[in-house]
Specification:
Length: about 475
């Protein structure tokens, strides 16, 4: 890493890529990059002094990044198309090109890495771990897959030290494209191993095999905190400790809702932390907080500091994020894009607001995921009282014949359901009588969040 002066990101606007870009910028490197869309995150990077181009051409790459292949590192995301002009140029001129996951593996090699893996829950769980460590003044850094509400960023930096080997590094261990196999954590969490990314893996068994490979890389003197019921313990030499909402070495008890907060006791081998009142709602978030608290106890954080941190943790953007919270008019946005995530989200909404009417606006993400989980999507979305279903967001994929949002809609049990185009959401919702509105999805549905929130707030004013 000593020869690199310039770091160029192809796909810099991704949540994981942007965290790496910020790390390199904070540590004195020249940073620039390409992304196809001007998003709030891209604007934020530009405001921090990082040059970003939205045009895929060689001419838009800053000249200093092109003059010496030995001084420039190119980092890319697998979502970049094969025929990307900038990538082709870097390949043809012998620049060093690495995936984000490979670079993360290099950066974390000399740190005390805490890897958080799982098909669901890793962003919230990793940000919870990072927040507890920061709150307790444990010297740590974190590369996160979401913008934390407490810090307004997806990168937390450690305090300067001559002893980097003592610094904890919290990182999301992403199973997509088997990226997490570049990590060799001292401590790991595995939240779930459901079937997902079958466009990459083909079968669920291949997903499980990848997780087995990941846990086999944990330091043999380390520890794996694993959700109860996952069949991975025989694949690692590390100590394995179980957790879940209601069973395992670490679990919750006395869960109840009080003053619109989920309250619970955290049970661990040496005691109990009582009456933790979480700001972020949801049974799944209680479970995520159990895993994070177990890690914090393991590294020496006191029960008192853990409770304080959990109670002032503000969550991650687009994870059960309130946009409007008024009596009779609530709007919540969530990134859920897998049936299990949608079920957890909508179940928590229903638990928090019993008897209330929920209008769900959902955008499926990927043709392959829609094809592979049609039944699951239909079942989880049937928890809503009304469904407004958008067309599939393709992301990196080409259309698949016969795979449209219609195949989900046909199987949804609710009678109040329809497919609408994204540009009609505001006008259609404006004509409906709504109580609780939720937007769900990982595509570009996030561009609707602000205008929807404004429209719903104006409804309050006008009424």
């Amino acid at each position: 890493m000593t020869n690199w002066k310039y770091i160029y990101f192809v796909g810099i606007g991704g949540i994981g890529m942007s965290a790496l870009a910020r790390w390199f910028k904070a540590n004195g490197f020249e940073v620039a990059g390409y992304d196809k869309t001007m998003t709030p995150l891209v604007r934020s990077l530009m405001s921090e002094g990082i040059e970003v181009t939205l045009e895929d051409s060689i001419e838009t790459i800053p000249l200093t990044f092109l003059k010496d292949p030995d001084e420039t590192l190119v980092i890319y995301t697998p979502a970049v198309p094969v025929q990307h002009r900038q990538m082709l140029h870097f390949r043809d001129t012998n620049f060093l090109i690495l995936k984000r996951s490979q670079v993360l593996g290099i950066l974390t090699k000399n740190l005390r890495t805490i890897g958080v893996a799982g098909t669901h829950g890793k962003t919230t769980t990793s940000s919870l771990v990072a927040h507890i460590l920061k709150h307790a003044h444990v010297n740590s850094t974190a590369f996160l897959g979401g913008i934390t509400q407490n810090y307004g960023t997806n990168l937390l930096l450690n305090e300067p030290t001559e002893h980097l080997e003592e610094v904890f590094c919290v990182v999301e261990a992403d199973e997509f494209d088997r990226s997490f196999l570049t990590l060799f954590p001292e401590i790991a969490i595995v939240t779930s191993t459901d079937a997902d990314h079958l466009d990459i893996y083909g079968k669920h068994e291949a997903v499980l095999e990848s997780f087995r490979d990941f846990v086999s890389q944990i330091d043999e003197d380390g520890v794996l905190f694993m959700k109860t019921g996952l069949q991975l313990s025989g694949s690692t030499k590390a100590e394995v400790l179980s957790y879940s909402l209601d069973s395992g070495v670490f679990h919750a008890r006395n869960i109840h809702i009080q003053n619109a907060r989920f309250v619970f006791d955290f049970v661990y081998p040496d005691g109990v932390i009582e009456d933790i009142a979480m700001k972020i709602p949801g049974y799944h978030n209680i479970e995520n907080s159990i895993a994070a608290s177990a890690v914090a106890l393991h590294v020496g954080v006191s029960p008192e500091k853990i409770k304080e941190a959990l109670e002032n943790y503000g969550g991650v953007k687009r994870r059960f994020e309130y946009q409007v919270e008024e009596e009779g008019n609530v709007y919540i946005d969530d990134y859920a894009h897998h049936p299990a995530e949608i079920e957890a989200f909508l179940s928590s909404v229903k638990g928090l607001y019993p008897g209330r009417h929920v209008t769900a606006i959902f955008q499926p993400h990927l043709f392959t995921r829609t094809r592979d989980f049609t039944e699951g999507f239909a079942e989880s979305l049937s928890l809503a009282d009304r469904l407004l279903l958008l067309e599939i967001y393709p992301a990196r994929e080409l259309p698949i014949e016969g795979v449209t949002s219609q195949i989900i809609l046909e199987k949804v049990q609710s009678e109040d359901k329809q497919i609408i185009s994204k540009d009609k959401v505001l006008s259609i919702l404006g004509e409906l009588n709504t109580d609780i509105v939720v937007t769900i999805g990982a595509g570009d549905i996030d561009t609707l969040v602000e205008p929807l929130a404004i429209q719903l707030r104006n409804r309050i004013v006008n009424n």
